[in-house]
Specification:
- By secondary structure, the chain is α/β, with parallel strands linked by helices.
- It has two domains: 45-136 and 261-328, 3-Layer(aba) Sandwich (D-Maltodextrin-Binding Protein, domain 2), CATH 3.40.190.150; 140-252, Periplasmic binding protein-like II (D-Maltodextrin-Binding Protein, domain 2), CATH 3.40.190.10.
- It contains eleven helices and eleven strands.
- It has helices at 2-36, 56-72, 87-95, 109-116, 152-161, 176-188, 200-209, 219-222, 272-286, 289-295, 307-328; strands at residues 45-49, 76-80, 102-107, 128-138, 140-143, 167-170, 193-196, 214-217, 230-234, 259-267, 301-302.
- Strands 2-1-3-10-4-11 form a six-stranded mixed beta sheet, sandwiched between helices. A five-stranded mixed beta sheet has the order 7-6-8-5-9, with helices on both faces.
- Strand 6 (167-170), helix 6 (176-188) and strand 7 form a beta-alpha-beta unit.
- Helix 2 crosses helix 9 and helix 4 (109-116) packs parallel to helix 11 (307-328).
């Protein structure tokens, strides 16, 4: 009987030892995972710009990226992925990991493309997490100085006299500049030859060179060439505070109002704590007077909208542009 009792004691001791080993292993595993989970971010962050360098999105991405690098403590790398009117870059961002290391500098065409292009592989609302709305700006109509027009009415008269000959550049099929040009033609009763480029920057470069005669863009994009182009009108309700001599389209009898916007998005499913960190950093940048001062010459008004309000804008614009595209009859192959 004594031998049996001794073996039972040994078995109990072994079982206790195993439990202790398992407990120790669990503690070590937890400690290891805690050490492995470095605070966000622990490596560079990529900010995708779905256009070529030089356009308004690129300008704003570099301004906010420089400041985000400082606040995050990691470099923000600008990745220009142009193509299909910004669709390629947007789709790339939508398919990226929702870990905070891939962000998108989105703009208004984000909500236009699903209505105007076929085979789009992203949902402008459900495939993204809103981080922050950067700002808004009205579209300005520019022409090459060689065009014999001093006003919008002069330009419309030329287009009517030579239907299908005057050219209008855009930043790509389905871009905001393209859709604004289509709306302009519909409102003015004219027909222009659309010349798409891979971004608003290249479009403005060819406008300056005289390869195309006209084009819509924002002051942010045109800021470096304002002395080499002629602005005829701004698509806003009122004149720009920073350019009071530039008339609105409405003053010329054309009801054209188009307000462009830019914002930072992340792929859907971004962890809440990372989204909050990014939103807080972007908010701090937008509240900086220094940043607002940098945007003023570009004709961009800083936004103070919340992520929820930004999401609401994306939802409303997606529905609005779908209705406009259908009513105007715009189609893209």
């Amino acid at each position: 009987m004594k031998i049996i009792i001794d073996w039972l004691a040994v078995l109990r001791a072994r079982r206790a030892g195993l439990r202790a080993k398992f407990a120790l292993a669990a503690i070590i595993a937890l400690a290891g995972s805690a050490l492995a989970a470095e605070p966000y971010p622990d490596r560079p962050v990529t900010l995708i710009v779905p256009y070529a360098a030089g356009g308004s999105s690129d300008v704003l991405a570099r301004l906010i990226g420089e400041r985000l690098s400082k606040s995050l403590g990691q470099q923000v790398v600008i990745d220009n992925r142009a193509g299909a009117g910004s669709r390629l870059g947007i789709e790339f961002a939508a398919k990226s990991a929702a870990d905070g290391y891939t962000l998108l500098l989105a703009d208004m065409p984000h909500t236009i493309i699903p209505a105007i292009q076929k085979g789009v592989h992203y949902d402008p609302v459900h495939d993204f997490t809103p981080i922050g709305l950067i700002g808004t700006a009205s579209m300005v109509f520019f022409i090459n100085p060689e065009v014999k027009a001093q006003t919008v009415r002069d330009f419309v008269a030329l287009a009517i006299a030579e239907p299908g000959k005057m050219t209008v550049a855009s930043g790509g099929i389905g871009s905001a500049t393209h859709l604004t040009a289509e709306l302009f033609q519909a409102k003015a009763g004219i027909k222009l030859v659309h010349v798409p480029f891979r971004g608003a920057g290249p479009a403005m470069n060819d406008l300056v060179a005289g390869h195309v005669q006209s084009g819509f863009t924002t002051l942010a994009t045109a800021s470096s060439v304002l002395d080499r182009v002629r602005a005829l009108a701004v698509a806003s309700e009122t004149r720009l505070p920073t350019w009071t001599s530039l008339p609105t389209f409405k003053e010329s009898g054309i009801d054209l109002v188009v307000e462009h916007w830019w914002g930072v998005l992340a792929p859907a499913g971004l962890p809440g704590e990372i989204a909050a960190r990014l939103t807080g950093d972007v908010k701090a940048i937008l509240e900086s007077q220094e940043f607002a001062t940098r945007l003023e010459p570009l004709g961009v008004t800083v936004s103070h909208a919340s992520p929820a309000q930004f999401l609401g804008l994306i939802e409303s614009d997606t529905a609005r542009w779908a209705d406009i595209v259908k009513s105007v009859g715009i189609s893209v192959p």
